[in-house]
Protein: Transketolase, thiamine diphosphate binding domain protein
Amino acid sequence: MKTIEEIKEFATKIRIETIRCIKQRGFGHIGGSMSIADVLAVLYGNIMKYDPKDPAWKERDYLVVSKGHAGPALFAALALKGFFPVEWLATLSKPGTRLPSHCDRLRTPGVDVSTGSLGQGLSIAAGIAQVFGMRKQENRVYAVLGDGECAEGQIWEAAQYASHYKLNRLVAFVDWNKRQVDGYLEDIMSVGDIAEKFEAFGWMAAVVDGGDVRAIQQAVLELQKKQADRPAVVVLDGIKGSGVPEFEQMEYNHHFALTPELADKVIADLEKQMSKGEI
Ligand SMILES: Cc1ncc(C[n+]2csc(CCOP(=O)(O)OP(=O)(O)O)c2C)c(N)n1
Structure:
């Protein structure tokens, strides 16, 4: 197991590489990429089984980043773990790239499922978990959903399915960063109490600070211990743009043009924090 300090540092490196990657492109989904850096660090740092040299390894765990517009954060995590060279990150969304703006399993080593059309990822994750159960395989499936994405009816169809079929190898995360593309959920479309909703569908649920890697890790491990006959969800109570005050405080931080000056400044701040051990 990696230490919590190592996981925190990994999360910061995911943020830095994500910002560098989007800087090259000039614009991108920054807010929702930042807010999943911590959960990705926990999953790729200490939870998931995978082999960067063999992304299709049969015994690996699967990850479905259902909010597929946050691809850059996933690409940063995969590059840092050695699935492909970090230099690829500079090619985000450029002609001929292996890293399109949204997750594409046919193009990027380590991406298990193509996503981008919101609402579909939990159904896909449930299907994968169902197959593992039928084949008595030990692999686990993780899914990362957006809170705005939970406005899609298909999420709740999948929730009902996963509960009925006792999909105990499935853990979902909801990035409860309170915002979607058009603004705050409370103004556009409230999702209500996410944990309570999943519990009503027969899931186990926990709510943790989405920026606290220790809490995220503990929640996953504890839920998995108790997960005899049910799927589980971890609601990540967080901030869109998290880890970078300039992004957190922007009125619109979903998809925006990132100037090289701002990118360089926030990267330097993150590097300074990391070198002082303040992350
Ligand atoms: C089916 C579908 N409708 C609309 C969109 C356009 N879209 C892209 S991101 C987004 C907002 C998603 O909000 P949320 O799930 O909260 O993601 P986050 O704020 O964490 O980035 C929307 C509506 C889409 N990708 N798919």
The pocket of thiamine diphosphate is lined by residues 31-32, 35, 67, 69, 116-119, 146-149, 175, 177, 179-181, 240 (CB under 6 Å). The mean pLDDT is 97.
